[in-house]
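Design request, tokens follow.
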């Protein structure tokens, strides 16, 4: 199959969250299965293009308002793919839209004022790219709101019924990685899309007189999915639907959940190059070494007997940071004050949270934090911790709990979204399970569940060791999920009467 991934993020080029990991890992896996996979992504200012191939001739993209946008196109092979069938990555290099620091915003302008135009243009440019390459995909696979207008262009401009076009046999899939971000902007921006105002209503852009890019994609894509079966169900409810639950119920027959895999070439304790010594279920000595290195890295006393709780997260409300660090309210203060444990955190995000964390780590001797982004330290935390805390408000899939499981680190999670599909709660009677779960998101539930895990550490060590092994032997590889995407692509073609 010829598959075009339309995305605003892909590792190693641009990443703010799990979307970037998913797009690249899935693409690499699909290419390994023999498919022709290409990724199109904006060339942000931070992406070094010196090693990319510049394609001849600038590319013109006709937009609304009589504008034609000109961009350069760069090409490269994604690292880590088979040379015989590489994943090709194309960068749309448009200086005014993408020649600035930040993907969606920067510290002073957190959501760029022209984001709707930037990404509407990017979606349209994806079709121009296909023309330029004379390569037309069987499947256009768009990801999240920045790419959500691509399925709209397919349905309302490029694949019109009764009109033969190069895209007549292309079907579209839109994957929701996070329903909380929808790309809602003033509707005045719609003229720029170059689609008639009838499309504004028919494609579902209209949202209380605003322009909602994700909503239009959800209406217009041939099929839609999200990144775990449980989150697919939750998003159809008022509680988790972010006002789009009605649309998702309306599209129920075309909507499903496929659990993300993890990149087992990068996240694998027996191959990990960031940790002091590799380990596996057969020999866990390397995990003890990682714990020692982690304690050293964070300036904590080296003690194999005290449980270490790790956190790696974006510091944003979605991740339950209010319940962890909220002034006078958060649970971390009392957890660290009352319990015999060590806690380490790596993260960056909301300013208030970063300063609370700095305050806490200066007052608590067993809580240490690094503010920032570091692949190396995130690997060390996954390997060296005994427990991993993830009290998410909502979690479409979540990668960190899967990393934790395969590194023998027991997740302590709220039972929401993909966390329910991947973690099994500890059963004190049978000793079964792979982690510790709670329902209600409030500081005392976090406090109690961390307390439960710490109790098990000191009193049920045999169960803890068995849970570690159970987690480490689970298969979260992309192969399994990639097969499901192929099935979904085929079902989409069938539903559209193609093949
Ligand atoms: P989300 O995409 O909502 O942030 P996921 O758990 O799906 O949550 O994926 C988060 C990814 O980002 C993981 O790979 C995680 O390790 C990584 N990550 C988040 N914050 C940091 C950080 N400060 N340093 C390194 N990696 C981070």
């Amino acid at each position: 199959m010829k598959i075009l991934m339309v995305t605003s993020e892909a590792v190693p080029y641009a990443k703010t969250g799990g979307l970037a990991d998913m797009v690249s890992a899935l693409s690499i896996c699909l290419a390994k299965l023999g498919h022709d996979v290409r990724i199109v992504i904006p060339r942000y200012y931070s992406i070094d293009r010196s090693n990319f191939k510049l394609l001849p001739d600038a590319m013109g993209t006709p937009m609304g308002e009589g504008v034609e946008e000109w961009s350069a196109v760069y090409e490269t092979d994604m690292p880590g793919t088979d040379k015989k069938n590489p994943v090709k990555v194309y960068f749309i290099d448009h200086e005014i839209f993408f020649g600035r620091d930040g993907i969606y915003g920067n510290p002073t302008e957190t959501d760029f004022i022209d984001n709707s135009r930037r990404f509407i243009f990017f979606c349209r440019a994806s079709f121009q790219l296909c023309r330029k390459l004379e390569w037309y995909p069987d499947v256009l696979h768009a990801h999240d709101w920045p790419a959500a207008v691509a399925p709209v262009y397919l349905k309302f401009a490029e694949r019109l019924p009764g009109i033969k076009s190069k895209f007549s046999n292309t079907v579209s899939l839109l994957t929701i990685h996070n329903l909380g971000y929808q790309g809602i902007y003033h509707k005045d921006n719609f003229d720029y899309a170059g689609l008639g105002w009838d499309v504004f209503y028919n494609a579902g852009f209209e949202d209380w007189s605003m322009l909602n890019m994700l909503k239009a994609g959800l209406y217009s894509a041939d099929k839609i999915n999200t990144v775990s079966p449980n989150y697919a169900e939750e998003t159809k409810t008022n509680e988790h639907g972010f006002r789009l639950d009605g649309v998702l119920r309306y599209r129920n027959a075309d909507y499903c959940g496929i659990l993300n895999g993890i990149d087992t070439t990068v996240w694998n304790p027996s191959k990990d190059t960031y940790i002091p010594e590799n380990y596996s279920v057969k020999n866990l000595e390397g995990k003890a070494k990682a714990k020692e290195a982690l304690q050293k890295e964070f300036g904590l006393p080296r003690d194999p007997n005290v449980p270490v709780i790790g956190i790696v997260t974006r510091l944003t409300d979605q991740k339950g940071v209010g319940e962890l660090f909220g002034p006078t309210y958060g649970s971390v203060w009392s957890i660290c004050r009352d319990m015999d444990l060590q806690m380490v955190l790596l993260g960056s995000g909301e300013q208030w949270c970063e300063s609370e964390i700095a305050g806490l780590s200066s007052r608590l001797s067993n809580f240490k934090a690094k503010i920032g982004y570091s692949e190396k330290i995130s690997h060390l935390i996954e390997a060296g911790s005994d427990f991993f805390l993830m009290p998410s408000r909502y979690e479409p899939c979540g990668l960190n709990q899967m990393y934790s499981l395969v590194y023998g680190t027991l997740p302590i999670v709220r039972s929401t979204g993909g966390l329910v599909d991947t973690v099994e709660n500890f059963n004190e009677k049978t000793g079964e399970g792979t982690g510790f779960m709670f329902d209600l998101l409030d500081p005392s539930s976090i406090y109690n569940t961390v307390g439960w895990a710490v109790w098990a550490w000191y009193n049920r060590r045999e169960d803890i060791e068995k849970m570690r092994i159970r987690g480490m032997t689970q298969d979260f590889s992309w192969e399994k999920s990639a097969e499901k995407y192929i099935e979904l692509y085929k079902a989409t073609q069938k539903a559209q009467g193609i093949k």
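Comment from the thread starter after seeing the answer: thanks! The longest strand covers residues 68-77.
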